[in-house]
Amino acid sequence: MASHSDTLVVFFGATAGANGGKLGSDERELILLVWQIVDLHEKKVGKLQRCLVKPDSLDLTEQCKEETSLTVDELLKAEALDSVLQQVQQSVSAEVKALGRSSYTLCVDGPLIIRQVLHPEASKKNLVLPECFYSFVDLRKEFHKCCPNSGPAKDLTLSSMLDYVCIPPVEDQMAGVTEVENMVLIALHILDEPYNHQFTGFEAVKYKFESGACSKTEAVDSETVIRARGLPWQSSDQDIARFFKGLNIAKGGVALCLNAQGRRNGEALVRFINSEHRDMALERHKHHMGSRYIEVYKATGEEFLKIAGGTSNEVTQFLSKENQVIIRMRGLPFTATPQDVLGFLGAESPVTDATEGLLFVKYPDGRPTGDAFVLFACEEYAQNALKKHKQILGKRYIELFRSTAAEVQQVLNRYMSTPLISTLPPPPMVQMPVMAAQPFLTTGTTRDCVRLRGLPYTAAIEDILEFMGEHTIDIKPHGVHMVLNQQGRPSGDAFIQMKSSDRAFMVSQKCHKKMMKDRYVEVFQCSTEEMSYVLMGGTLNRSGLSPPPCKLPCLSPPTYAAFTNPAAMLPTEALYQPPLLATPRTPQPPTHQAPTLAYYPPQAHAQLYMNMNMNYTAYYPSPPVSPSTMSYFAAPPGSMAAAVAAQPPPAMLQHGAQHGALVRMQGLPYNAGVKDILSFFQGYQYAPDEYSSMVQMSDQARSLIQPKEWLCL
């Protein structure tokens, strides 16, 4: 409403549940409305009106019965909410017109009755509220302007305001009437001398949610952000805005969260215009969206920017068209063109600006992902497009969903930041430190290991060490093993080698189902043999061990926990072995005493990734050893290899073998031994000393080679 309203409508409401400061927090329906008009020019009041509302559920709480003195029989005779609201509007309009005034604004004791009760209930019942309920003034804030020493506005009550201005309160036996009459007394008092107050603090309720883009560089106040959990997977930003109806969400302030597979995970981050609206949103914890209850928690601005923030100019230009409905298409053929998509959608759902309203999601190298976003000018066009859900384009069925600007940003950020093996630069040839110890992973039946299952996918080794707490002192050096899936992503599993079986048992008892971030983690005691089976792709179940499949999960990228003195470096020729050479090397003796807790410090991670810049071909697949152990190096570029060729040959080649004289064998049987390999090459002339150094690896070395791995001879 305009800021020059002639009259105030002092308005009060009560619900069938909690009232006062908890009004609307329990989703109870309105059962009582009371109002009275105040003429701002003549400082006169109109007739006090009181009306009961019949709720859908006639279950009244004991607190409600005590405070309102209403009974179920009285409510049965009342009318439904939509009829009562129409009566309110007609009655107020007629009275304002009789006074010769042209406009009016609601005046309430705090915003809860409007924002937390009236609008949410009308939204759930699909009612269209009259325009007068989208603007109001808060009597507490207006009183605080006149009397700033009375205390914070949010802490004021009718009794405290009356006491401050020394006005005796009105007491009435009828529920709601007392509150309205006291509110009228306060309003008339601040309108008169010496205050001569003018009501100008008009608050508005947004009619609809405004979509928009958010930049990574934008400042987001953490006191304005919440996290909603338990959302239906098909819910859109408009559905979430409807759940928070009555509260003003910032432009583009709804960000749907996606899981590791790019699908919605039932969570969303919502940004409000200020902390007051955020606090009211937290009061809707476990309110219902349909048949589901939604959990509401505090969140941070950093979390919101991580999901909703973007830096792509292409996305910014795509989202610059306001008031557009966004639809996400998933499962498109990789050969699909813009014309194919437009033809699939048809003339009944025209895309905004034709091909300009299409955004295909691609990998950094330009390959299509099968996802696309489409803009429609109105809801009708979007509905027509959604009717084509799971229809066929080419030889594939296409999924269509409502989407948001934040989801567009999130999907583009996710795909554009995905590392591709083919695009990574070759590793720089730098001297590598000698490992201070041999691999710690050996086979055995001693149950001195623990398995962590159900880890958050974002968990790092530092999170595991924090999760273990005081038990970290019992972890063997280099004894933390993160398990990755075929795509190189965390699988949620990890293995930890402890110093003894007693320590492993203690950890499994103390840490089982302990929380890490938002998830509980299962901790089981196991043996090194069982750990090796899982790391090589097998499974652990109640019936025992099942053998590893052909395609295996991978260990996490190699990291270093301790570095030796720079003097103790490998010779130059040792850096240029054939790629993925699995033959174990005898480590150089360390030149210093390694620290007791020498595993995975953060600075080691940084030094490894910043200085080495190794590519993923060196990471995956890796033999089932501690991820802190490097037993092979990537091949050097051709120019570097030529330079190395001029150096003295390694000891293994000093007996006449030359570069390129090695062969590798793939697909060896699991039970193949060294004799089987020598028999396979029978007839070829080898001097015994030419392969004696390689034969030494025998069973111990074979335990470090995954099935389908490379064996260099």
UniProtKB/TrEMBL annotation:
GO cellular component: nucleus
Primary localization class, coarse: nucleus
SMART domains (UniProt xref): RRM (SM00360)
Domain RRM positions: 224-301
Protein localization: Nucleus
Any Gene Ontology biological process: RNA splicing
An example Gene Ontology molecular-function term: RNA binding
Key word NAD present: no
InterPro entries membership: ESRP, Nucleotide-bd_a/b_plait_sf, RBD_domain_sf, RNaseH-like_sf, RNaseH_sf, RRM_dom
Keywords in alphabetical order: mRNA processing, mRNA splicing, Nucleus, Repeat, RNA-binding
Function: mRNA splicing factor that regulates the formation of epithelial cell-specific isoforms. Specifically regulates the expression of FGFR2-IIIb, an epithelial cell-specific isoform of fgfr2. Acts by directly binding specific sequences in mRNAs. Binds the GU-rich sequence motifs in the ISE/ISS-3, a cis-element regulatory region present in the mRNA of fgfr2.
Family: Belongs to the ESRP family.
Descriptive protein name: Epithelial splicing regulatory protein 2 isoform X5
Protein source organism: Clupea harengus (Atlantic herring)
